[in-house]
Amino acid sequence: MATTTRNLSRKMSRQHFKVCFCFKRMFRLHVAEPPEEIGVIFYEYSENGTMSMDDLCEFLVQYQGEKGGDATNKHAQSIFDSLKHLNIFQRRGLHVDAFFRYLLSDFNGPLAEVHHDMNFPLAHYFLYTGHNSYLTGNQFSSPSSVSPIIKALKKGVRVIELDLWPNSRYDDVQVHHGGTLTSSVKLKACLNAIKDYAFSTSPYPVIITFEDHITPPLQDKVAKMVNDIFGDMLFRPDSQHTKEFPSPEELKGRILISTKSPEFHEAQRIEDKDDRFRVNSKDDLDEEEEEDGFEYRNLISIRAGKPKGKFENWLINHDQARRLSLSEQELEDIAKTHGTDIVRFTQKNLLRIYPKGTRLDSSNYDPMVGWMHGAQMVAFNMQGGGHYLRYMQGMFRANGGCGYVKKPDILLNVDSNNEVFDPRASRPIQKILQVLVYMGEGWRSDFGPTHFDLYSPPDFRVEVRIHGVPADTDAKQTKTIEDNWVPVWNEEFRFPLRVPELALLYIKVIERDFSGKHDFGGQTCLPVSELREGIRAVRLRDRKGEPYKCVRLLIQFHFANNVA
Length: 564
What we know:
Elements: H1 2-12, E1 14-19, E2 23-28, H2 36-44, H3 53-62, H4 70-83, E3 89-90, E4 93-94, H5 96-103, E5 125-130, H6 147-154, E6 159-166, E7 173-175, E8 185-186, H7 187-197, E9 206-212, H8 216-230, E10 255-260, H9 262-269, H10 287-292, H11 294-299, E11 300-304, H12 311-314, E12 323-327, H13 328-345, E13 350-354, H14 368-371, E14 377-380, H15 387-395, E15 404-406, E16 431-441, H16 443-447, E17 460-467, E18 474-477, E19 488-497, E20 504-511, E21 519-527, E22 534-541, E23 547-561
Parallel strand pairs: 5-14, 6-9, 9-10, 10-11, 12-13, 13-14
Antiparallel strand pairs: 1-2, 3-4, 5-15, 6-7, 7-8, 16-19, 16-23, 17-18, 17-20, 20-21, 22-23
GO cellular component, one term: plasma membrane
Membrane topology: Peripheral membrane protein
Domain PI-PLC Y-box: 325-411
């Protein structure tokens, strides 16, 4: 029996690859073992090769940066409990292999749970925002469905956009992308889907933005439909003239409607003599139109609209808090000369940025341009792909993935000279992020033995990138470890940061291919401001952002003050 076991072990510790049908290449399969540095740390915090509960608590506080007390004691107990079923666990405590398994487990992730103060007005938060949330694919010809709405809500998206159009008989409302070949889905189906899944992932409010192209009678029909479906879930403000939006905490479990008011639609139809925007009084509408729009008007808790005239008019702070929408191109153009005005506007009002109309393939743009100017609703095509979507997903992994991320104080403060944050100003280095990439594991389990290379084990390297304000953007990479499913890099990188509050850490694993067409080995994006210091297990994800079951990296994070 012992001989059989040894033979099986020997067989499992090697991998064979056929070459030209005649030859076999044989490679030793490396098992994930604690890097030497991890062993040194373990023996520093253990006694006679065993780490007791008290030893583990000491490690969590002194090395991992936990605060201590009951929370740390409970965390240590949960770690012990999670390892009891393994053969490597000992009653007296953890030995080095069990300690290593803990470090690579989900108990040791790099981010914290919900911890931001949720009692500030909505304008003080970034909101996870979708664009044309009903589309399943491109912006021109893809089907419309409730499926992408449900999927977005399950991922924590808090702002859903619906385009409202009359049907061919003008007696009902449907949702589709106007002027394109996209199919339609009934508004009622979309609203029911939102009701069923709005709070499946996060308890914080869902905002539905209507881009409506419907007549006053159909607006009344929408009002009745919304009231019937959402009932008490629907938030109705006490006043139509809100000076400050409520907080996410106040709005837990509520649905908010944001769109242009009937008066705004009518004002757009009426030409003012001096060609300047004015909000029409009730006298501008006849009694029938006013009555038609009453119920629809009462739905709106976040009023939207773009005043006529030059963009300077758009950014004026009125007594009433409101939402302004700009295309990505409009934002870039205005930001060149009026960046601080945008920041000041977003301290009280909501700013929504949406993709330019030429993105028919549902691609996305750089969200950092919006965030660094305080834009709360940076609307994305969630069905798209690419690295910008990964940055968006990374930002909203902050605060426990609840869909609301507190804006940093630098975007909300006004100094003694009445100045606000200037996104274009040069800034000194605030801190340095040190990233030590130890090792990785799990590819053989998640990908299969010949996924990367038919003739040998994979050759992995790690790319580490900072995406933030332009001065902070940087990229580095490890050396390539050849023919190894469990690569150990043990390389450290330093990233000086001027605005660490907005920085994102993007990590990507590449499998080198001598043909030049390298393979994708996983990625993740993490908000730098949320990183927990210490040695952490970083789970990698596929191109769409879904986590792999086994693939992860062991990385140490540390923040150092900038010493001139």
